[in-house]
Amino acid sequence: VTSTSGVISFDGDAIATGAISADGDITFGGTADVAGVTSQSGVISFDGDATASGAISAGGDITFDGDADVAEVTSTGGVISFDGDATASGAISASGDITFGGTADVAGVTSQSGAISFTGDATASGAISADGDITFGGNADVAGVTSTSGAISFTGDAKASGAISAGGDITFDGNADVFL
């Protein structure tokens, strides 16, 4: 499905084995099971649960209101928000903030100029990196965490198999098990 100058809107459930591409916004009103989604300059919104075997890329914001099981998510000009549980086998990258409202099981997360926030428990097999603050609201099991100019805070228990580095404060409110 391709729209070169308009928007694409799926009001119900959507299953697509090929790529979905638009210059404008793309909205999924129901459950989405897609191969890949690209919006050159618009936003991508998933109102229901989302499964994507290919990359999701937007020039604007990307929002997941339900649970998400994705391969890779990139926003070159906006924020990425996961309101439900999130599983990502590939990288999650944004120029702005990245938020996880539920539990997160991710390969790696990078924010070039924003903050990263995990409300629920977080597991990351790859590095978590941001220019801004990185906050873990639940328990965290991570490979490594780096904030170039912000603070890093762990509210729950923290386990890290790699380095934890921050330009600001590093706070552990729960138990910490850090391997360097």
Topology of this protein?
Elements: E1 2-3, E2 8-10, E3 14-22, E4 26-28, E5 32-39, E6 44-46, E7 50-58, E8 62-64, E9 68-75, E10 80-82, E11 86-94, E12 98-100, E13 104-111, E14 116-118, E15 122-130, E16 134-136, E17 140-147, E18 152-154, E19 158-160, E20 164-166, E21 170-172, E22 176-178
Parallel strand pairs: 1-3, 2-4, 3-5, 4-6, 5-7, 6-8, 7-9, 8-10, 9-11, 10-12, 11-13, 12-14, 13-15, 14-16, 15-17, 16-18, 17-19, 17-20, 18-21, 19-22
Give the DSSP E fraction (strand runs of 2 or more residues). Answer: over 45%
Uncertain stretches: none
Largest sheet: 12 strands, parallel
Mean pLDDT: 93
What separation lies between the terminal Cα atoms?
47 Å
Structural class: mainly beta
The portion of residues assigned to helices is: under 10%
Oligomer category? single chain
Report the principal-axis shape. elongated
Counting DSSP H or I runs of 4 or more residues, the number of helices is: 0
Number of strand elements: 22
- Helix/strand order, N-terminal first: EEEEEEEEEEEEEEEEEEEEEE
**Rg of Cα set:** 16 Å
